């Protein structure tokens, strides 16, 4: 019985080993993986994936990114296989017996650690790259002798688009010729990528070590480098003077160029003899030789399907890229590491009926388009099946004359363009009412560069202005000249933020690396049915356009459910429309069969609006009386301590008469100084003729003063084992500045008050009586107690606060099917959950009808983020939560949270409650004018309490007052009343 061959044996094996450990990693429980990696790696994995940290961030790595990071780290750091063959032998031995796998993995280009991540377009491959680079760098910095790690990185892009995207990721976007590091992925997402204690090191490394393709081998860096280039540098085709030593099979060699490669100085007076040209020819091998000489190197190949495909006879032969990498790796052994990223890591093999896909053998994670769609990480896909297109003949090529020159667009192409424009116009009008800053785009992909001009001309004829169309024109290599690119790139990478251009026209240049979010319609004017090209074209529009709105997120989930049930979507949020001829639908059939892609037909009167039942409600005209102004502490009230004042003549007398004390004075006794009131040990010391080996009375006074001030000031307060006492005693560091005054008070106290009589310490060595254990303890205790009492007088300064108002959020999204009309709120309607929102609906309608409730509002977790409160979870980790409602009456403001009755006893719900009570108490300590002349209180309500109160005809305000959580002082006062 034959079995189906596993196309990704490494990914499957790693999923078995690592996948089962992920739940424990998320929970922070011990796992084999966490014990086998270095402490630095363990710290990073906890920070990236442990739930305690994840809940502190609004955005995190998704499941696919997490799997890619963990699989690669486990394969490289734990298994530590020096080559691809060794990796198979350690974890997927059976796969070596299948087909020609053994022969493939033992090839020269696989004789080093090598991993490939198969990740769908739009799922954040660059984030995985960033995380892996940080993992390598921090480990290399901590363990410089560990050969598994390096601080030298080479990032290889397939073209200018991805090349610039990588530079943006590390150095920030370029505007006006300058890059702003604070716009880089590394900096913007520092809360996701880098634990706080490592940020300075990582930022310093990135800012000082990034090297562009022009500076490889020239720029001097310190602790490593991040070299960014495109594959042309490695293939040697970017410089027309460069002739590779070994030609690819089928490649044509230009005779003139070959002669010039041997005789670099050409006859004549042109630039061929200039120093610049001669310099460039001399250094043409410099970058590759320099990279080859590095002791270790990790290579990241972005869009790596380019490197592994060999296409004979084409102008660009990708095999040269791999040849150069193999040459660079030849001097490094297992210290050369290669990580490939691609949504389509395969080669097309065979022809006709035998045509198929051959996947790379080093794929260690498979997160494909289907998984991304199911998780809602990319747009849903919809084929625009219009009747007029279905009835058209298969005529998608432009019209050409007898010489093959393009003379115009075919009727089929014009029909598809009009269909795309119609869809775009409908989306523009619908989305503008939801968010005027969202600008959907139409992308047109032409068959070649000779067609783009006719497309642009047609679009202008259809009424689009010049600024509405951006043509990214390219030659047959899929590249633009540097001058053309500089003019185009700033408009291209900022299209999401601007209303124009509306339409982007391109050939193949934008088939990868074009990472914008607002492409909502794609019109592919091409005849190619190559799967790799189709998937890349669809990938240009898959990135999510709508994020951070709970109502829209719910509608997107409903869309996915409808598409899975073979129904048309009821709204078009994050739906990518492909205006496609049915003859080319075979690519989409598999997605539709699995319920991941849908179909839409012609727009009719029955067609649901693009925004479904979503409504955007704005502030009501008279919202001010219903607004809430939240006090935000800028500075707590301050307690300013007065200068300590001691009156030695009012301090207590010693319980031992001076005459008796004289009899106890001796040598060699051990003494311990203790505060009589708190029994806190100030310090132990051995006496040999004087306190702390004091040589005389003045020395005694000096040492005793230092001991007392240090004990009360904190530097010696560790002499007590009680944390409470430590905090009390360490509260007065300012005492150390008053040592001269304190010494004088102690001297006066001893001479005139302590023994109930006037004594001269220096006469007849009277000071030696102070060395007696009981007397020393009492003296130090009396002074310390008096000091503490003198410092209890405080001058209180009023707290400084600013205010944040709920009305700062001027618009809320609600759904007509799940909202409540309210009259006492800044918004005329409030959203409730589509599922399980019955309690909230009842509560809001009930409270809205209570005449004692002056104002109410539901807090939007996404929009009213300033109301979120920090708290400590049961495991001690910090977290944040957002209360559900705010209510205001004549005397009170209630912070209200509703929970199912089963959740009321949850320990983290109780911890949220404690944090909320503390917040309310802090607000209640403010001046009345700073808290709207009302007291704040926290209320935790269960469903039974609400239901019972409604059934008993109680007011909502009465329920809130009855169930509000009171302070200890209020509880005591109430108990005394009863």
Features:
978 residues; alpha/beta; seven-stranded parallel β-sheet; 17% strand
Provide the fold topology:
Elements (H helix, E strand, L loop, with lengths): L8 H11 L2 H6 L4 H5 L2 H11 L1 H4 L8 H16 L5 H8 L9 H5 L8 E6 L5 H18 L9 E6 L2 H12 L2 E2 L2 E2 L5 H4 L1 H4 L5 H11 E2 L13 E6 H5 L19 H8 L12 H8 L3 H8 L3 E6 L2 H4 L10 H11 L6 E7 L3 E4 L6 E4 L3 E5 L1 H6 L5 E5 L2 H4 L8 E2 L5 E3 L2 H24 L6 E5 L3 H13 L7 E4 L9 H12 L9 E4 L12 E6 L6 H9 L10 H15 L10 E4 L7 H8 L3 E4 L13 E5 L10 E7 L2 E4 L16 H7 L5 E5 L6 E6 L10 H17 L9 H7 L9 H14 L20 H18 L3 E4 L2 E6 L5 E5 L3 E3 L7 E3 L6 H11 L6 E4 L10 E4 L5 E4 L3 E4 L3 E8 L7 H18 L10 E8 H9 L4 H8 E2 L2 H10 L1
Parallel strand pairs: 1-8, 1-11, 2-6, 2-7, 5-6, 7-8, 12-19, 12-20, 15-17, 15-18, 16-17, 18-19, 35-36
Antiparallel strand pairs: 3-4, 9-10, 13-14, 21-28, 22-27, 23-26, 24-25, 29-30, 31-34, 32-33, 34-35, 36-37
Helix pairs in contact: 1-6, 6-9, 17-19, 29-31
Description:
- 38% of the residues lie in helices and 17% in strands.
- The strands form twelve sheets. It has a seven-stranded parallel sheet.
- Helix 34 (907-924) links the parallel strand 35 and strand 36.
- The protein is of the alpha/beta class.
- It has 37 helices and 37 strands.
- It starts with 8 loop residues before the first helix and ends with a helix.
- Residues 239-284, 308-318, 667-693 and 714-732 have low confidence and may be disordered.
